[in-house]
Amino acid sequence: MASISLKKLNKSYGALTVVHDIDLEIADKEFIILVGPSGCGKSTTLRMIAGLEEISGGELIIGGDLVNDVPSKDRDIAMVFQNYALYPHMTVYKNMAFGLQLRKASREVIDRKVQEAAKILDITHLLNRKPKALSGGQRQRVALGRAMVRNPEVFLLDEPLSNLDAKLRGTMRAEITKLHKRLNSTFIYVTHDQIEAMTMADRIVVMADGHIQQVDTPQNLYDRPINMFVAGFIGAPQ
Ligand code: ADP
Ligand code: MG
User: Fold this and answer.
1) What is the pLDDT of residues 206-221, one digit of tens each?
2) With a 6 A CB cut-off, is 13 part of the ligand 1 pocket?
3) How far is CA 5 from CA 25, 68, 200, in A?
4) How far is the CA of 46 from the centre of ligand 1 (A)?
5) CA 139/CA 163 separation, integer angstroms
6) Pocket test for ligand 1, best of 22, 35, 44 (most atoms within 8 A of CB)
7) Per-residue pLDDT reduced to its tens digit, 22-68
8) pLDDT band at 172 (very low <50, low <70, confident <90, very high)
9) How far is CA 215 from the centre of its chain?
10) Per the database record, which ranges form the ABC transporter domain (predicted)?
11) 214 Cα to the center of ligand 2, angstroms
12) What's the rounded Cα separation, in Å, for the pair 174 and 70?
């Protein structure tokens, strides 16, 4: 079970508070999208959930456990970044297998999981290539595959499509939605792209200046934005 609660979650850098008292309840297997302008605290929030950023205040509860002080490697979480972060000297296969090797999985298990993920993502024919011989879309599939083989309870994705061209973004939106339906994971996805948010999310969290403005389904946000900022951001008529 990977329900996630953020209770009055805060992040400060010295005197500068960049995430203010965020309260959010995310259901197991939900697809949540955080949207908002650049600098509003989306990545910081995601990085606190991943354990990559120290929490300054409040509580982070995953699957019923308070995890504020649990190190990143001990959280059942995988993160996919905008810039792929693949190992350039390793083949696609090795890139996908590496995290499982670190966890001492057997060769058979690793091979089965890599092959399974590669098939789902349609990258089986690329397994022996190095990242530099791949297109942007192919690299992003490998990054997804690398996260998938670990079967994480929580998938965190930080603007995974923003380096891709518009056509490929459309294809990958559908792929990620399909992946979510197929896996048993909770997805938290950061974007500043309204179309991604409106088409992919179960619920959208609209943020501004480190605060949550509104949390609701795409339809409800569109129909009943609570203020002009949300209306403008979601693209509802004003
Ligand atoms: P977003 O992902 O929504 O674009 P971020 O979460 O990356 O925003 O950043 C939120 C705010 O925190 C920004 O104002 C950013 O400049 C600031 N910030 C991020 N990381 C640091 C840091 N290491 N030190 C100081 N300020 C930071
Ligand atoms: Mg960001």
Assistant:
1) 999 999 999 999 999 9
2) yes
3) 5, 11, 21
4) 11
5) 11
6) 44
7) 999 999 999 999 999 999 999 999 999 999 999 999 999 999 999 99
8) confident
9) 17
10) 4-234
11) 19
12) 33
In the chain, the percentage of residues whose pLDDT exceeds 70 is 98
Max CA-CA distance within the chain?
A: 57
Which amino acid, one-letter code, is at 199? T
- For residue 99, what pLDDT is reported? 87
In short, whether 87's Cβ falls inside 6 Å of ligand 1 is no
Q: How far apart are CA 122 and CA 116, in angstroms?
A: 10
Which residue has its alpha carbon closest to ligand 1 atom 23? 13
Q: How remote is the C-alpha of 117 from its chain's centroid?
A: 17
CA distance 182 to 93: 22
Per-residue tokens: 139: 């690299």
Distance 44 CA to ligand 2 centre (A): 7
Amino acid at 223: D
ipTM of this predicted complex? Answer: 0.98
186-190 and 31-35 as β-strands: parallel, antiparallel, unpaired? parallel
94-134 confidence digits (pLDDT tens): 999 998 998 889 999 999 999 999 998 889 999 999 999 99
pLDDT of residue 236: 53
Ligand closest to CA 34: 1
User: What's the chain's Rg over C-alpha atoms?
Assistant: 18
